[in-house]
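Researcher: Next sequence.
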Amino acid sequence: MGVRIAVIGGGISGLVAARALAIAASSGRFDGNLDVDLYESTGNLGGKLSSTDLAGITVDTGPESFLARRPEAVTLCRELGLEDHLAPPGASGAFIAIGGDLKRIPSNLALGVPTRLGPLAHSVLEQRILTFRGMSRFAAGFLLPSLLPADIQVDGHHYPASSHAATSDADLGRLIERHMGREVARHLADPLIGGIHAGSIYGMSAAAVFPPILEASKERGSLAVNLARRMSAGGPANSHSKHRDHDAGSNRRANPGSSGGPSSSNSPGSAAAPVFYALEGGMSTLVRALENDIIHRGVTIHKNTPVVALDRLRSRWHLAVSTPTDTAKRASNNTDIGVVTGAAATAGTGQGTAQGTDAKKKGDGGDKLGGGDTYDGIVLALPASAAGRLIQSIAPEVTGMLSRIPYASVSVVTLHIEHPAANDLPDGTGYVVPADSGQMVTACTFLSKKWPHLATDSGALLRVSLGRYRDSRHLSLDEQGLVETVTTELEQILHRHVETRTSLVTRWIDAFPQYRVGHLATVEQVRRILPGIGPVSLAGAAYGGVGIPACIKSGYDATTSILEQLRNAT
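Model: Next structure:
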């Protein structure tokens, strides 16, 4: 009898893990027979990677792009034959909504943090992106760092400068505010860095989100100068590939699980390679290609099959599901891809696959245990709290740690707007909104400008995000209320009437994990404990980054971990 592994969760991380395990099985890298099953609780694979039709155009209801400077997503697309589908942005530059007007984001920002005095001063003089007081405060930290105050006051709380100097982590918002001032922290860094995670930089882990700035803060001299040196020495890709899905041009996510919101990325005509890629046909193109690939490699897919319990007995994992097993699909099944179109109010709307025939179970003697099966290893490609619930009876300590990772909810409203507003959109990819603006909208992407393959002669496509950590006002609105709120706030910022032809509302509930101070230490502790309960590994955005490339890497890392544990066990 061979070794059996179950991957629980059919998002991008789970799909990649299943594929990597199947490759290991066929390439001989794993000593012995290896069978892989993938369980997905819904009828659609891909998690937040989903697409649908709006105004006759395929648009993404989840991530609309991924970072090109990290290799994982681009390499995977090429391996799956999707290289011709990679689409670079057709516009560059983005804006911040300050004081009811759009201010162009200055150059030489590292994840929203200024690293040079000149470009910021030019932006202040030209368009008042900061007040002169805010600019003076940044200049003081840039030119005379030794004269910075020994501590700061943030929202009425006192924080000494020494609170982070000798630690392995720091509060990112407080760190930036102390060195660069409140306006830089709240009007530049927070909407850009915090926006990627649908959260606030105050309380956010510098070590998890932006490690170069934490290291730069421990050196003598100006934080901006130290950070610029580190970014220049490592390069944009190398500086971040070790940790998270960061990029200096990533100005806002307007969608879940991606830094694909308004972007100051290079245009295709520039000499530099694009910072982001979209996929023509939507991200569901990647999901379909992955699904077909793993079916061809022999992975068994169980859709509409929630895993409700895991147990450990006689050195094997016992997996219980809550639905019949007639939704399983084997490699011999024909794939019938169906597209779901129209407005959606819940996560998971997009493209699905027709269910196949029963899959032959390969457990001990072919017997099913409690409506499930038995496995030698488990990959939990689930949100942190869901993963914790499955192992609660076996590892309650781990469950407690995972349950303390908070999540934010986001609503995404995609609009097809009519002329003349469509003709008068600013020259850029979109804008972000600081948290202290009072607006419910957090970001807007000019889809038709950013991605040429989404251009339409009948108007323009806009993508608007609402919601961030501890701001769930959007959840109290129905679809019509969301569209009306978005339209009103767009008109206030764009200073023109916005006439909507059709709209699409997607809600992502508890979709964005928040990396609070100490996050990496928690994840490291969880990974140390887990192998003690049996061969099991974790994958997903809760652990190694929210972007698509980071989630792909987490799938590969989970595969490496589970195979190593199984080798050690045998």
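Model: The CA atoms of residues 45 and 181 lie 44 Å apart. The radius of gyration is 24 Å.
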